[in-house]
Amino acid sequence: MDKSAVAVEALATHVGKAVVLQGWLQNKRASKNLYFIELRDGSGVVQCVVAKREVDDASWSAAAQATQESALVLRGQVVAHERQIGGVELQASGVELISLAEEYPITPKAHGVDFLMDRRHLWLRSRRQWAALRIRNRVIMSIHEFYQERGFVQMDAPILTGSAVEGTSTLFEIDYFGSPAYLTQSGQLHGEVMAMAFGKIYTFGPTFRAEKSKTRRHLTEFWMIEPEMAFYDLDMNMDLAEDFIVRLVQDVLRDCQAELTMLKRDTAPLARVQAPFPRISYSEAVELLTSPKTQELLQQHAENLHTERSALEAEQAQIGKRYGQVKQWKRRQMDARRIVINQRIGEIEEAQRNLPQWAESARDFVWGKDFGGSDETLLTWHFDRPIIIHRYPAAVKAFYMKRDPEDDRLALGMDVLAPEGYGEIIGGGERATDLFFLQRQVDEHGLPREAFEWYFDLRRYGSVPHAGFGLGLERTVGWIGHLEHIRETIPFPRMLGRLSP
RNA sequence: UCCUCGGUAGCUCAAUGGUAGAGCAUGCGGCUGUUAACCGCAGGGUUGUAGGUUCGAGUCCUACCCGGGGAGCCA
């Protein structure tokens, strides 16, 4: 291994110099005396030009032999080249084949989800996955920076627990030396413990939910960041959540331009993610949801879908008519276009099927229910940035939430909803401080008091106002990267029916 | 659990109930700058499974299996 090898991402600072690159062949284009090799090294991708007259025979035949994902060492000079991503390419002087790859299953063309998921261990090498997971990395870094700069202490909550926080139906149960134990659903309660010991803390760990949800927003194993702060009320909690999200988005916007470009992410909506976020109470949200304004937005959306579909269908008909009379290469273009059209029409059809239900759900929404996925999406349509909804009916929130002193029906909870249909990325609130209230809540939720004695102790020994929230890492990354599915935001997604690789 | 869409070549997809095709990938040949390169040729199929309707089924019907998306629930 060559210690002097340069990372692709650093090449811009090596223009005009001779370098050694180590990596894998992502794609190759050939003409008689020239190979264009796209070399991937994990830090980026660079085009390497291998010209027959510039290299020796061994190098030339190595370049000829190299298949997709073959491992290579390339030597050459870095030259500036306007048309390349990153602005540089390598003029190769030597090619060494380290390992000849067998026929690679993931080709440069499209593949289906199931096929790719079965090959997740290889799929991770693809550009989109690279971009998505680099954004994940940047977000994780920002999370730690944000809290560490503010004097928060990182404290891990246990993953194995003896008690449930949320409903028991979504718990993964395991055998713990003959007793039942559960994989954690939230570090919440332990976070409160640590906040009483360290003041301001945050947990960062995996969370498990045995929900039988098959949607683009659900994983059975996901990562959650849960800050918990002593002497914080609901407003301070919302301020923190707002600053936090702005920071994550702006860091990615600044440091992940290449990744966002690769994902074809429209960055305008991200640039608008600035404080303050609209803060609306649950009751105001219900009013908004059931208002004519929401129905108008739905109507407009339905019309847009209809117009788009008509245009696509007209184009489809045109293609069908002309198909028999055109040249081969044109026909191929038409085939490709036809596939894109079919896919989009499928999406529109589904949206058109769902829209009436969305409208009905919004129109008939009654105070007291929790918002469904479509309701949340509709609420975010009214705004151009994330929104915070606070003061939910106590009945739909967790037992440990503090009641609103001004209205006992309400809990001092808050959710942050991401725009563009990505839904809830934060859930949290101010915690109840009163021992007797909590004991009653535990009883009413049918939970065993004994299991919460240690939690009750926090209210016996110096109980103070405190608050916190949980941020879903994968949903956040999915939203920032505008990814179609949450499974692309984590290296090895765990979902219903998916445990491997 | 329910609703909905789908399963055709290694992959992605076509195919008014009437001879199963295209692109990519693979192999061979061509091309001095390509950007999912391009051009030519070749090999590649028990249309998810089991029944049924029909002169004839990839296409219609029934059941089952597998997958996508959504509801419920949630980050």
Describe this structure in words.
By secondary structure, the chain is α+β, with helices and mostly antiparallel strands. The protein has two domains: 8-99, Beta Barrel (OB fold (Dihydrolipoamide Acetyltransferase, E2P)); 122-293 and 364-489, BirA Bifunctional Protein, domain 2 (2-Layer Sandwich). Helices cover 39% and strands 24% of the residues. The chain is built from 15 helices and 17 strands. It has helices at 57-65, 113-118, 120-123, 127-149, 188-198, 234-255, 257-262, 268-271, 282-289, 292-322, 328-363, 373-381, 435-444, 453-460, 473-481; strands spanning 18-31, 34-40, 45-51, 71-80, 88-99, 153-154, 160-161, 173-176, 179-183, 200-208, 221-230, 279-281, 387-393, 403-404, 407-418, 423-430, 466-472. Strands 6, 10, 11, 12, 13, 14, 15, 16 and 17 form a nine-stranded mixed beta sheet that branches. The protein has a five-stranded mixed β-barrel with strand order 1-2-3-5-4. It has a three-stranded antiparallel beta sheet with strand order 7-9-8, with no helix packed on it. A hairpin with a 4-residue loop joins strand 2 and strand 3 (45-51). It is globular. The mean pLDDT is 87. The structure holds one RNA strand of 75 nucleotides.
In short:
39% of the residues lie in helices and 24% in strands. The chain is of the alpha+beta class.
